[in-house]
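for the writeup, i need someone to sanity check this before i put it in the appendix. the sequnce is what the collaborator sent (i think, or maybe the updated version? ugh). structure was predicted straight from it, no edits. if anything looks off just tell me and ill rerun, i have time this weekend
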Amino acid sequence: MNVFKIIFLSILVFSALNLPVNAQEKESNSKSLEITVSVKKELMTKSKKDWSLYVYAARPNTRLPLSSFKAKLGDLPMKITLDESMYLLPDLTLKNAQEVIVIAKASESSDPHHKSPNNLIGKSKVLSFSDSQNLSLSIVIDRKDVR
């Protein structure tokens, strides 16, 4: 009976020792974007402080979010992290993306799809996960969103 206890305890200890390693492996394989977002002073007025702010990562030449975050324009400047867990649709995540752009959009509407000539936007250049799974960048909301 002692042999069974030793085997059982060995399995428990071995499992406990492996959990942090697996968690670290999973974490290091996850894609994330650390973003500092700000707004150009000339575009910020008191009336815009309550506008909705949407920050999201998308594949280049699309606007379908792979990871997204919502706040208020008045909260800027701020640092946020977008990661694989912040998806809207389970089939559209950062996990399988090789390249992304990050968009910061401010709107007086609470609907992120609402188009208005007053909407404000800032975009990153195309970013690649080929060298690193964790990228850092800064975005300035610096113009009106005219498409």
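The two ends are 74 Å apart (CA to CA). The chain has one helix and nine strands.
thx in advance!!
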